[in-house]
Every structure is written in structure tokens, then in C-alpha cells.
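Two proteins were folded this term; both appear here.
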Amino acid sequence: MVVAQDWVNWPPELAERYRGAGHWQGLTFGEQLARWAVSYAGRTALVDGGRRWTYAELDVAVQRLCTGLARLGIRRGDRVILQLPNRAEFVLSWFALVRLGAVPVHAMPAHRRSEITHLARLADVAGYLVADQYGHFDYRELAAQVQQDTGLRHVIVAGDPGEHTGFVALAELMAADPEPGPADPPAADDLALLLLSGGTTGMPKLVPRTHDDYSYNARRAAEVCELTEESVYLAVLPIAFNYTMSCPGMLGVLQVGGKVVLAPAPGPQTAFELIEREGVTIAAINPPLVPHWLAEAERGEADLSSLRVLQVGSARLADDLAAVVTKKLDCRLQQVFGMAEGLLCLTRLDDPDDLVHTTQGVPISPDDELRVVDPQDQEVPLGQTGELLTRGPYTLRGYYRAAEHNQRAFTADGFYRTGDLVRLTPTGHVIVVGRAKDQINRGGQKIDATEVEGHLLALPGVVSAALVAEPDPVLGERSVAFLTCTGDAPDAKALTVFFRDRGVAAYKVPDRLLVVDAMPLTAVGKVDKKTLKHQYLG
């Protein structure tokens, strides 16, 4: 069972206010799925290749798996790492865990031993749910390593468990005769899931979300996006992303009785085939995918007439590129600015083009509170740049098991320091300018400089290391590693092998290496990254 001090809930007076406003409806996701199964029984809920589930079928399948997990020994409050690609098994497992009252810890398919071991220890997980193989990688070997590192009790494999002793096939758990419900059901204000934060120091932090707040996040986003029973959502990016889950994502579409279509790969050809076949009405991608979508659309081989809204988010979309999207694709562009920690901003479907092309939208909730402040926490005049602080009915009040960090990440009155530098327009639209945090946003993948620098310093002969961002026309930003060495510096191939052997995700390998004789230092003896950028990157 998760104890209260592991995470910070909303103060009682604010919780009551959010309930009174109807934001929090007191329903767990398991209860909601049961209601959807009645309201939308015969409608298609989920599509994965040739496999389809109606809402009624989805509810039954989830209940079978929920029963199987309970018989395995998973209990309310247990944390379970969920690392699956865009397959129906992710959706079924997620709903089964939250219905049981267990807490899925979202991990990305690209994560490896370093990241997963960190998550397992931080969350004290009871289980780890993985695919057998995906993208030419064997996750069973990874699971065996993590189990050896941490002693986690259960490893569940979607597919063939192989020869690993004690690994359980997900299919076996899904074949259980369904029992009426969990013996110890969760409450709506319980911890429902743990999302990953990009973080600013060390390894990723965990973002606690409750059934109440996460449900509101998805439901309100669905309202802003004007979703209906006829909406068909294409999950292009990894479904474990907050963006793909609830902005409005999978959860928002299911709340209104629409259809979720899982794309097995993010490439535009795959996406366009699914748009045409399934009549997709809304899809969500990141900026690096935009040029590829535009190029594929120019070929004119797929019928995209069903697509009404294309969301672009997870990184800043260049204004010029936003204008091209509007011209080249016969659908509405919607810019998205959000974070796993909570706050979600969307441009509205009836916003004029100039706002859609140049801003990242307005908050979805009337109870979202925003402050834009200078380094002394004083609010700046409207239109000036400052750091964004926020609080609201779906924005966290503290990271999971991070009491010391929370002292710095939140104000005394509960505002979250996002680290994003923004400007506000007179209409309330947010313009993202940059970040105060030492973090690189490589095509939507958040790379913590401190973590990568730690790996670089483990290289033989490396004396000092600094990782900085460099603009990139496709990725938005790419990473540049500066090294001082006592001997020969590693080349790109050696660096890739080194990171792989350490179990680090491939996207964290620096895109460029530059060797310098000495690192410039600030007055207090820290590496001066501003000077590095000015001297070497222009």
C-alpha cells in the first residue's frame, strides 16, 4: 500500500473546491470503464491491427486480467512498471492495474537497464510488465537484469516468456475466469499512476496522478477538442506518454465513446494507411514528425479526408512550420503545451490562424492558475518573459518520494515551478520561449544534462564533461557533449557502445562530441555552459 508521505495530495480546501466545481467526480478508472461498457457497449473502443474490442469486450477482458493479476499476488497500492509499445496489451494492462488499485509506473520502450533499475528502486515496485521483443530488442533479458538488480517479485511478459524461470505470460493472466471485482477496491483520490518527468537533476522523477485529477485532465481536454462518439483517435507517439494518454489522448476519446487506433510505428506511411482505413478524425504528433507528414501528404497516395484535427506538441513548433501545416494539410492544426506534472494548454479550434501559428494555447481549466515571474518570484508585466508557475485541479503538489526536491520545485503556496520561460498574450495564450532548466528537448524526448554528464565522466580518460543543447531544424534541439580528456577522446562509435553497455537509452547518446583543452568556469567554480555555447556553437 502506498503511504501518504510518499506523495503530496491537494489541501482539503482545494480538493473540496474542485469537487464542488465538478472537476473531480469521485470515480476511479475501473468504475468509469464499467460505465462506458454499458453506455457504449457495442461501439468499437480499441483497434490494434486486425484486433478489435468493443467497449463491452474491453471491460470483460480487463476484468479477466484484473482477476489474473490479483491471483498472481498484485495488490492495491503495489507499483508495477509498465513498459510496452503501442499494443492493445498496454491498454488492457493499464486498466486492469488501476481497477485493481495497483499503480502503473509508465516507462518508455527506449528505456534500458539504467533507467528501469532506477524506477524500480525509487518506486519499490512489485512487478515489471514487458514485451518479449520489440524493435530488435529482447526485453526479457532486460527484465532478468532488473530483477537481479532489484529483487522485484513479478515479471510478466506480453508474448513468449522464454526460458526465464518465474516469468509469467500475460496471456495466462488474461485467461482467468473473471471475478466480480477487487476485494480491496481503490478510491478516486488514490494514487492511480506514476508518470515520468524529464527532471532537471539526476534520473527521471515520478509524477503522481490520482484517478480524480487524471480523469479530469482527459475529460476536459476532450471537451476543448470537441470530441464525440464519432471521434477516432490515432495514437502515433508512445502511448505511455502523458501526451498520448490524456491530452486528450486515449483516455479522453474513451470517455466520450470514441475509437482509439494504435499505430505500431510513428512513420507517416503507417499513420496515413490507418487514417484512411479507420477514418481517423484526430491525431497527435511532435514537431520532428511534421516535415515527414507534409512530405508524405504531398505524394497524395492516401485519403486523409477524415482527419479534422492534427495536434502538435511535446516540443515547441516553429511558427513558420505551423503555417505550412495549415496550408498543406486539409485539417485544423492544434498546438499543445503540456507536461506530465499537469498543466495543459491547447489552442482552440476556432482560434484565428495567427494565434494557432504563434502560440501554444490557453489552459484547459478555468481553475488553472498561472504566474509568470522573474528570478525573484516577482510577477512580470503582461507580455514580458518569465518563468511559468502553475497550480490547479490536475497539477501535482509534489513529486513522488522527493521531499527535498519538492522544497525547491514548489512555492510555499503550492505553485509548481515549471522551468519553462514563457510570455502571455492579452488573450491569455501562452508563448513558450525556452527553459530555465538544464534539460535538452530532443524531438520531444527530455534529456537531463546532469545524468548524461555522469555517464560521460565514467569514460576512461574523461576529466570533465558538459552537455548542452544546440538548435536543430528537425529535432528542435540536439545534444552536444564537451569533454576534456587526459588521452585520446572517444569517437562516436565508442560512445554509442559505451552507453549501450551501461544500459542507457539510445536517444541520450550525445549527437556531437567536442574536445576542449579546459572548461570555462563561473565565479563559483561551476562549468560555464553559456560560455561554451558562445565560443563553440555561436
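Next, the second protein.
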Amino acid sequence: MKKLSKLFFIACLFLIFGHLTIAQQPDNQSGVTELYDFSVNLRADYGSLSRFYSIENSPERRQRFESFFKDQLSKLEKFNFNKLSTGGQVDYLLQKRYIDENLFELSVEEKEVNQLKRWVSPAESLYELERKRRRGLHLDSEKVAADLNDIAKKLKVATTELKKENPTFSRELTRRAERTIRGQKRALNSVYDFYKGYDPQFTWWVTKPYEVLDKALDDYSKVLSAQVDKSTLPKDDGSGIIGNPIGREELIRQMKYEMIPYSPEQLVEIADKEFAWADAELLKASREMGFGDDWRAAQEKVKMSFVPEGHQPEAMLKLYNESVDFLKKNNLLTIPPIAEETWRMSMISPARQLISPFFLGGETLQISYPTDDMNHEDKLMSMRGNNPHFSRATVHHELIAGHHLQGFMNNRNKEYRSYGTPFWTEGWALYWELLLWDMDFPQSPEDRIGMLFWRMHRSARIIFSLNYHLGKWTPQQCIDFLVDRVGHERANAEGEVRRSFEGNYGPLYQLAYMTGGLQFYELKKELVDSGKMTIKEFHDAVLKENSMPVEMVRAILTNQRLKKDFESSWMFYNK
């Protein structure tokens, strides 16, 4: 019995420590690469530091993160790049890209703050108070009150000097000044909220100087904002949409970051070619419906097929069921049962529909449709723009195999890869619109007109967003283009343009749909149409690699050996 007990104990130790050893090593089944630990620690350490050094634009935060990212770069460079697996090389390159981008942004911040040094320094001592507050040090309340009172006086002097000297700042410098003062105000609020009430002396001494300084910071921020060089501000062209065109140089820099080796002009040319294809297909569908070449009349009939008020959710459920049945029937990818089980619906508020006039997706399918308090014209435009034939093209985009399945798989596969990019997120979802068109998913010419509406819209997004950021088009011209060229309802077109330029989206977001979709489409031709993979293998493999630039997905799936000084060169459009 003693011998058996000893053997049992040894076996248990083997299972325990053997399991730990396996978990620490790269595993082919889970896809963990040699950079797993580095990547997990980088993300966790960044999160810890962000929560601790929370006052943006403060010297302390900037210096700490500059030190942090340089240290991470040093650790990264200790890996022998040439001996890494392909997945490890991809992780190396993408982590270096992330680090370099953060160091670049910190350098821009430092340069801009230094240019503003004279005007943002009066309240800098608030940073030190916040530093002491984080550790709960007891403060000399009388001295704090005097210091806050002194800062308010300095702000008054700075305001007088600003008005007297009347300097002008670029849009970028003005925004930096505003954010810096906002950070100083946040430091002040953090200190006051921590000690008030708990330290009677603090409350007695500091309350009034705090209130004066809190208002003084708000007033000073407004004075700084007024110093913007108005010639650098975008003008309201009558649309009421005021965005921030970034210019050609910054467009190219950001596209290089996203591994898109095309110029803005080349992408517009690609979009024009895709538009021409859609135009020809639209005329075919219009003729089948009996409208000849009057595609607007055919599209008008399709728009009028909207479902009655109150019935949009069940109409979307019907489209979803048809979409998923099609995916299963053609064995296009693996659909985990829980992913299919747990998606749900919500309705988008009227206010939010001003920015999001169509579907939004993910685990929750968010539906745009009129409510009783919307005016008559807006109700009709929303119903017409969300008719079932138009929506047929987007249900799979938002749910399965698009955004919902993407999120589901990202949470379960290589979740340490935090390389989020719209060219993967929106590109993958758009790719399914291209693929299902090829597979005759639309059942009628009306369905084809609905799918073509969205395909034209994706091309239009490239054209209008790039022309806007290049300074060639105004927001109103973008709206008119969507109405005249795609067939948008005007209110919906306004919502799309407002979403593009005033929503929380990066300058490349709108062009990422079609561009990323074309990347996946070309990769499918390279791997599936050539017979190297089945279509199900291809789709499952993409979803198991998590989000990253599509060229890096290609590198992994083709087992491409990469160079340490890699630069994007994949010309994925060959029409």
C-alpha cells in the first residue's frame, strides 16, 4: 500500500508540474508563439501604468511611458528574430509597430507641450499634489489653500498676457492646450475629492480656493481655445458637420502603419473600378425588374418594400436565419453553438440614428428604425433606408460570420494579440458580402439591388473620406455624392458623413471596409481558389489568428518567412 501511495503521489506531481510546463511553452494547437509572455506582460503592465499615471499630458506620465516603451523595445530586441516561428515573427513586428507608434505619439506630445510651455505652466504644481494624493500623504491644508490661490492668480496674469500679446495657435496646438488644462483640472478634482470631508482641516481651508481655481481653469481653457488660428479651422459648409481633415502626409503615415502599400490616389482609383463594376450589375438588375436603365426607379421600388412599423426586428430575424442557413448549407465555416445561441437585439435611439442610421453589430444586433417621436420625413427615410433587401446584405456583416463571430472567436483564440485594426474587423465582415454575392446569395434582382447599394456605399466611403482628408471635398459634397451616386436617403447620407467625420472613428476607418474586404478576397483566391485550402479551412484559420493587418494574416497562413525590417509590399488588387 505504501508503494502504491508513493507511485500515486509521483503521478500526481507529474500531472501537476507537467501541466505547468506545457502551459509555459509555445503550443501548436493553441497557437501560442514565442512572444506570448512578452505580449501578455506588455499589455498588463501598460494597463497598470495607465491607471496609475492617469493625468494625460503631464510630464510625469509622458516620461514614465517613454521609459516604459523604450524598455519594452529593448526586451523585444533580445529575441532572435530569424529563429522565431512565422507567428512569432508576426507578433514581433506588430509589437514593435505598436511600441514605435506610442513613442512617436509621445514625441509629438512633448514637442507640442514644449511649444505651449509658457501658457500651460501656471497650474503645473497641481501634478505634484496629485502625486502625493495617490499615496494618501497627509497634506498641509493651509499651504494647499495658499498654493491653489496662487495658481488662480497666475492664471489671471496669463490670461491678461494672452489677450495683450494675442498669439495664435494651430488646431493641433489648441487641442493640446485644451487637453493639458483639462488634465490639470482633473488633478485638482482628484485631490479635492479625496480629502474633502475626511480631513476637516482640508475642507475648511481648501474648499473656497478649490472652487475659485476650478472655475479659473475652465475660463482659462476657453481663452486658450479662442487663440486658435481661424484660418486653420475647417469651415461649416452649411452641413453643420465640422471634422478634422488630416492631409495627405498624415494619411500616408497612417496607411503605412496599417500596412496598406497604396497611395490615397491609388485607393480612389480602386474604388472607381469597383464602382464601375457595381454600376454595370445595377443596370442588369434594373432591366430584370422592368425599369430598363432607370436604376433609380428600380431602387425606389426596392426602398418601398420596407416592413410595417413594429415589425423590423422579426424581419431581421428572418434574414439572419436565411443567412446562417446558407452558411451551414455550403459548409463555409465552423459556427460554435454558443455563438449562435447568445446574440441578441436592441433598438438604436432616435438621437443616435443621426450618426448611425443603419445596423450596428457584434454580440448585440442594434437596429435602426423609426420611433413614434421622430418627425414624418425622418420616419419614412429611416424605413426606406432599412428595407429588407438593403438589410439582406448586412445581417451577416453584423452577426455571423461578421462582427459577432469575430468578437466571439477573438475572446477564445490568441486573445493576447491586441492588434486591433478596422482593416481586419470591417474588412472581414465586408468580405462576406463579396463572397456571398459570388455564391448567388441574393435571391432576386431586388436582393441584388440591395446588396449593390451597400457595395457601392463601401466604394463611396473610400472616395469621399479620402477626398475629404485630402482637402478636396467638403462634408456637403460628401453628402451629395452619397445621395446622387449611391442613392442614399438624404438624412441617412448626412448621418453617414457625420459618423465618418464627427464620430469616434479614425481617418482610415471608412476606407477600411472595402480595402480590407478586397485584401481577404484576394487572400481567398490565393489559398482557396488555388486548391491549397478548403474554404472552410481558410475561414476557420483566419478567425483563429485574431485581429491584425491582413498582410500579417497572409504571412501566417502561407508560412511566409519575414524580415526584421519588414515593410508592407502586398499589392492585393489586380483587376
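The chain is about 65% helix and 0% strand. The longest strand covers residues 344-347. These notes refer to the second protein only.
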